[in-house]
């Protein structure tokens, strides 16, 4: 019997296309972009990306500029 791991490192939908190096880079960026973040002002979990480099909180409307896929506060 095969044991399945709980943490997935690969994305579905890409298949065997584009090469392993690009798939790994894409999955790293994707998981960095989609992880949960806390708002530096109110502390809620509703802090996310609005556009490239613009991050905002849906609860307190706090906006900050950062990098494209991650925020460094």
Automatic annotation (TrEMBL):
Keywords: Metal-binding, Ribonucleoprotein, Ribosomal protein, RNA-binding, rRNA-binding, Zinc, Zinc-finger. Binds to the 23S rRNA. GO terms for cellular component: ribonucleoprotein complex; ribosome. Part of the 50S ribosomal subunit. This is Large ribosomal subunit protein eL43. Binds 1 zinc ion per subunit. It comes from Nitrosopumilus oxyclinae. One of its GO terms (biological process) is translation. Belongs to the eukaryotic ribosomal protein eL43 family. Putative zinc-binding subfamily. The gene is rpl37ae. InterPro entries: Ribosomal_eL37/eL43 (IPR011331), Ribosomal_eL43 (IPR002674), Ribosomal_protein_eL43 (IPR050522), Ribosomal_zn-bd (IPR011332). Zn(2+) binds at residues 39, 42, 57, 60. It holds the Pfam family Ribosomal_L37ae. Its cofactor is Zn(2+). A zinc finger (C4-type) spans 39-60. GO terms for molecular function: large ribosomal subunit rRNA binding; structural constituent of ribosome; zinc ion binding.
